Each structure stands twice: as structure tokens, then as C-alpha cells.
Amino acid sequence: MRPHPPTDFEGLKHLIATRSVVFSGQAERVARLALEKPEAIAFGTLQSVATECAVGRTTVFRVAQRIGFVGFIDFQVLFERHLRQRQGCKLAATE
Fold first, then answer.
1. pLDDT at 19 over 70
2. CB 9 within 8 A of CB 82
3. How far apart, in Å, are the Cα atoms of 78 and each of 21, 26, 57, 69, 81?
4. What pTM value is reported for the model?
5. What whole-number distance in Å separates Cα of residue 53 and Cα of residue 47?
6. Is the pLDDT of residue 92 over 60?
7. Are 9 and 79 in contact (CB under 8 A)?
8. Could you give the CA distance from residue 38 to residue 9 in angstroms, rounded to a whole number?
């Protein structure tokens, strides 16, 4: 049974910080990239993320599944939403 995926970026950070989801060495690189450079996930492809992390595409896909997503696209949507919300906050602050 697949765990429920986090609904937002903060939930994802909490899952990783509390070690609710533990990753292997290669998968850890993908998780680190996700937290440090969310735009790489939001705007990248499965291949570009794999290349940046020096892992195979399957590793990226499995990280998404391990967190609870069906696949990479669902994982990516979380990052797209996070960046849109973050950009909305910046725009509101400048008005």
C-alpha cells in the first residue's frame, strides 16, 4: 500500500526532516535536489532531474513513489504549486 503523498512543500520537508521516508544514497541526492532547488523538479523532466543528480530515471521515479505519488508527474505538480504560491506571495508583498 502506497503512503499518502504530502499535499504541499512544507509537508514534503516535514516527511524528509522527520525521517518518515528514508532514502538510499542515490535517492538521497534526488530528495536533496528537491528541497534545495524545487524549480529543478517543477520545470525539469525525469531525464534532466536524473542527469543533475547523476542517477538513473528509475531512481527519480522511485523517489516520487516512495513519497506516495503515483509517478514523477504527480510529484512535479507539488513543486509547481509551491513555486506559484511562493511567487504569488512575492507579488503581493510588492504591491
1. yes
2. yes
3. 17, 21, 19, 10, 5
4. 0.84
5. 10
6. no
7. yes
8. 9
**Count of CB atoms situated within 10 Å of the CB of 51:** 14
To the nearest whole number, what is the mean pLDDT of the chain?
89
Continuous segment of H or E residues that includes residue 10: helix 9-17
Contacts of 69 (CB under 8 A, 6+ apart): 5, 75, 78
Q: What is the mean pLDDT of residues 18-29?
A: 89
What are the domain boundaries of the chain? 9-94
**Cα 3 to Cα 71: distance, rounded to the nearest angstrom:** 13
Q: Residues 79, 41: contact at Cβ < 8 Å?
A: yes
- Dist. CA 30–CA 36, nearest whole Å: 10
For cell 536533496, what's the residue?
A: 32
* DSSP alpha helix (H) spans, 22-71: 25-36, 38-43, 46-53, 57-67
According to CATH, what is the number of the domain 9-94? 1.10.10.10
